[in-house]
Write a structure and sequence with these properties.
Pathway: Amino-acid biosynthesis; L-histidine biosynthesis; L-histidine from 5-phospho-alpha-D-ribose 1-diphosphate: step 3/9; Amino-acid biosynthesis; L-histidine biosynthesis; L-histidine from 5-phospho-alpha-D-ribose 1-diphosphate: step 2/9
Number of strands: 6
InterPro entries: PRA-CH, PRib_AMP_CycHydrolase_dom, PRib_AMP_CycHydrolase_sf
Family: In the N-terminal section; belongs to the PRA-CH family. In the C-terminal section; belongs to the PRA-PH family.
Order of helices and strands: HEEHEEEE
CATH architecture: Roll
Radius of gyration: 14 Å
GO molecular function, one term: magnesium ion binding
GO cellular component, one term: cytoplasm
Oligomer: single chain
Strand content: 25-35%
Mean pLDDT: 95
Helix content: 10-25%
Number of domains: 1
Strand order of the largest sheet: 2-1-6-5
Length: 116
């Protein structure tokens, strides 16, 4: 696996654990599917393979979305936000994005209903 391009790495702002947020959006609908964490190696692998790869804080290791569940994310594009601390992945989602099997991780609790 290749290392992250130094020009990209220089633009990233990581937290104290060396991680940054990844917001995952479904191609076509614009739905936000999930939020996860990445480290440099996970981003490098994602950019190289177009398979969404994240960093698990609880397990302390990379994980490829769908490697176990089959609910994969093919990455269409990756953008860096203006602060450099979050990336936006636009994906083709196969199956549920949430570990519960739901389409998104935001299906469960509506704290404030849409107005109107």
């Amino acid at each position: 696996m290749s290392e992250l391009d130094p020009d990209i790495a220089a633009r990233l702002k990581r937290n104290a654990d060396g991680l940054f947020a990844a917001v995952v959006q479904e191609h076509g609908t614009g739905d936000v599917l999930m939020v996860a964490w990445m480290d440099d190696a996970a981003l490098a692998r994602t950019l190289e393979t177009r398979e969404a790869t994240y960093f698990s804080r609880s397990r302390g290791e990379q994980w490829i979305k769908g490697a176990t569940s089959g609910h994969t994310q093919h990455v269409r594009s990756v953008r860096l936000d203006c602060d450099g601390d979050t990336v936006l992945l636009e994906v083709d989602q196969v199956g549920g994005a949430c570990h519960t099997g739901d389409h998104t991780c935001f299906d469960a609790d509506l704290l404030l209903p849409p107005q109107g």
